[in-house]
Amino acid sequence: MTTELRFAVVTPVYNGAGFLNAAMEAVQAQTYRPLIHIVLDNCSTDGTADIIARFRDRSVPIVAHRNPQTLPAAANWSEAVRLVPNDVDYFKILCADDSMAPDAIEKLARAASSADDVRIIGAQELWNNVLRPTNLPASTTVFEASNFMARILSDSAQPAYHHLAYRTDLRGPGPFYPSDVVAFDAEAGFAALAQGGRVAWVHEPLFKTIDHAASLTSTWTKKSMSQHWEHFARLQRYGPGALSATEYSRVEREQLARIYRRIALRSVTGHRDVAQRDLELLRSRGFEPSLWDYASSMLSWAGQRFQPKLNANGIPDWPPTALKISRPDAA
User: Which residues does 185 contact at the CB level (< 8 Å), separation at least 6?
Assistant: First the structure.
């Protein structure tokens, strides 16, 4: 399939020899053209460079670079995105340990052409071979960016930020992925949504995410315990422009209760430093939780524990089969 839209798949990789070959093969298997694959080796010390070299003469052109020294993850992703040529219309990150269906880019291109001013394109993913719920309405394939943001903040929509495709002109002069947050892929997604335009969504699992013991997602979550706090910070930054005052107040109460509960639990489970960090962050934003705030947050949580978690389609959320993969060859 050939159209006027040019796509780039971008793979930032550091010591990815255990998975990289499968990701590279997935790009070469794409049915869509014109397509290029940009690979940035973050000064790997394993067999990553040899794997990249084996793909240089394949049908999808490889644009390979290597950093002179190892960069932090966010900086490496930003540098990889900076390498996308200006004449490319859309770029999409493909992590070295992820994969995608052979027609993934073809379907993204079709979605991009389905409406005017589509700046972001997304699709469902398989997370360790289990379909990840998105809580997006199956009948809607094009969203206004502000509405898409509201659905994330208010309806708990769950796009896979690392699988979003972005229009290339969304890049600014600075880093595309900020280095001052842990979930820099989510922060970049919100910053792009704030620029307006439309989001096209494909209600099919086009991408495959492998969450293993050494993945960025796994190590970020374990080390930082910051995902709920960062989500609250995004609510404060972007919520007033996407939600009504009434809806913003409701969502803020719910997220604060979640943070209060985690502060209380971490204070008694060996993570007092994290609890103190979150408390200081709240105080810096004018929130001083009372004993009643902690108690009510725990009471509401106790009630929720006896209710099954359902996604937007009434199906139990995150089946127990979605287990972490511990070996590179287990995918």
Answer: 77, 93, 161, 162, 177
CB 257: neighbour CB atoms within 10 A?
Answer: 19
Question: What distance in Å separates the CA atoms of residue 25 and residue 29, rounded to the nearest whole number?
Answer: 6
For residue 140, give the 3-state DSSP assignment: coil
pLDDT, tens only, 146-184: 999 999 999 989 999 999 999 999 999 999 999 999 999
Instruction: Look up residue 233 and give its amino acid.
Output: A
CA–CA dist 139, 135 (Å, integer): 12
SS3 content of the chain, % helix, strand, coil (to 5): 45, 20, 35
C-beta of residue 263 within 8 angstroms of C-beta of residue 301: no
What is the token pair recorded at 239?
């919520």
pLDDT for the residue 212:
62
DSSP state of 316: B
How far is 127 from 75, CA to CA, in rounded Å?
25
DSSP of 250-278: HHHHHHHHHHHHHHHHHHHTT-HHHHHHH
- Predicted confidence band of residue 84 (pLDDT cuts 50, 70, 90): very high
- In the block, tokens 């003469």 appear at 57
